[in-house]
Design a protein that fits this description.
This protein is an alpha+beta fold. It has 5 helices and 8 strands, in the order αβββαβαββαββα. An 8-stranded mixed β-sheet has the order 3-2-1-4-8-7-6-5, with helices on both faces. Helix 2 runs parallel beside helix 4. The structure holds 5-S-methyl-1-O-phosphono-5-thio-D-ribulose and zinc ion. The site of 5-S-methyl-1-O-phosphono-5-thio-D-ribulose has 12 residues, from loops.
């Protein structure tokens, strides 16, 4: 799905976002209009989903360009309400090339029921999908931040953990944020994290 007048790199980023949105929808991670997706281009441009649409039925018009501070390049366009949570990751680490946010049932339920500041994932083979992990004989901590409708304020809370979150993070009663150097890696990490959260939830119910 090429946008007329846009270059190949832009069209590839849009295609990545549309396909990832479909995948997340197939897995039940973007109900209603939940979730947002972004991709950084090699030249630094950032493509992100518009606010409000269904992320499983995106088309090229559902993806817009923002600057590094999260401002849409075209005035009047409305980028994701959670744009600042994406741009802070790109600003923190230039190696990050894609950011995904979804609202799964395990992520929502676990994060609401867990009173502590994190969810610990230990002993799972699938931990190896996360950056820097090479064995199941380890524990990875997924920070849990309280939800806040003021995204700028939430971003300042998340900021203190940047660089210390190999598996991404959870927002209480809300969902997960996961990222990677490219869209396939970000998707694999999201899939891994969702699988592990589902395992934790299942074990707590036993
Ligand atoms: C359907 S409510 C979900 C929103 O409040 C928000 O959390 C979300 O994930 C999607 O917001 P959006 O502005 O479309 O990127
Ligand atoms: Zn959300």
């Amino acid at each position: 799905m090429n946008v007329e007048g846009r270059d190949t790199a832009w069209n590839e980023a849009v295609r990545d976002i549309i396909e990832a949105g479909r995948r997340m929808d197939q897995r039940g991670w973007v109900p209603a209009t939940a979730g947002n997706l972004s991709r950084k281009l090699p030249d630094g441009r950032i493509a992100i989903t518009r606010s409000g649409g269904h992320k499983g039925f995106l088309n090229a018009d559902g993806v817009i360009e923002i600057d590094a501070e999260g401002r849409p390049l075209i005035e009047g366009q409305r980028a994701s309400a959670e744009t600042l949570l994406h741009t802070q990751l790109y600003a923190h680490d230039p190696k990050i090339g894609a950011v995904l946010h979804g609202h799964s049932i395990p992520g929502t339920v676990l994060s609401l029921d867990e009173p502590g500041p994190s969810i610990e994932l230990a002993g799972y083979e699938l931990l190896k999908v996360f950056e820097g992990q090479s064995t199941h004989e380890t524990s990875v901590s997924v920070p849990l931040f309280d939800n806040d409708q003021d995204i700028a304020r939430l971003a300042t809370v998340v900021a203190s953990s940047l660089g210390k979150m190999p598996a991404g993070y959870l927002i209480r009663g809300h969902g997960v944020y996961v990222w990677g150097p490219d869209m396939p890696t970000a998707l694999a990490r999201l899939e891994g994290l969702e699988f592990l959260l589902a395992c934790v939830l299942k074990r707590r119910k036993l």
